[in-house]
Design a protein that fits this description.
This protein is of the alpha+beta class. It is built from six helices and six strands; from the N terminus they run ααββαβααβββα. The chain has two domains: 36 residues; 118 residues, no CATH class.
């Protein structure tokens, strides 16, 4: 034990720190109650060349904190390319669904009336003629607006802000 203390004194002297600046024991982990209070880390996902059939119901997404995503490009500089891609894939996916909805209306004389009908008849999840929508960034999702019969992109600002806090660190970089 004395050897360990001698090494600690040498380390303190070499570092130029005052004695007592280093803890004698490792800090104890936070209690389980404090660990549970932390939100789970935001999981990002690959988007380029990836597709999805995951479409949320707009009313439920809005209840969970989503907002309609901006569909115009407002950035300048290096962000403009990613923002242009993000907005264009959103518009392309919506156009594919709009075309399928028009075909459905022409054949049936009506549009799907519920979210479930939309997922079965338009998206065709798991079927041979299913629509494969482009994958959106981790903080955006596809949502179906039942009232207006439109596919929209929603954004979850809380996910985006949490991810920014996770990646910027204490320095705020």
């Amino acid at each position: 034990m004395q050897t360990r203390q001698a090494y600690l004194v040498i380390a303190i002297a070499l570092a130029g720190c005052a004695p007592g600046a280093f803890p004698k024991q490792a800090e104890k982990p936070a209690p389980k109650a404090e660990q549970a209070a932390k939100p789970a880390a935001v999981k990002t996902r690959q988007t380029l060349g990836k597709t999805t059939q995951n479409v949320l119901e707009l009313s439920k997404a809005l209840e969970e904190g989503a907002v309609l995503a901006e569909t115009s490009i407002k950035s300048d500089g290096l962000e403009i390319a990613s923002e242009a891609y993000r907005t264009q894939i959103g518009k392309a996916g919506a156009l594919a669904v709009e075309q399928r909805m028009q075909h459905y209306n022409a054949l049936n004389g009506e549009y799907p009336e519920t979210y479930e009908q939309f997922m079965t008849q338009i998206i065709g999840k798991g079927g041979p003629d299913a629509i494969a929508l482009p994958m959106l960034p981790y903080y955006q999702e596809w949502a179906y607006d039942v009232a207006n019969r439109k596919l929209v992109v929603v954004e979850f600002p809380a996910k985006r802000e949490q991810r920014e806090r996770e990646t910027t660190g204490a320095a705020g970089l």
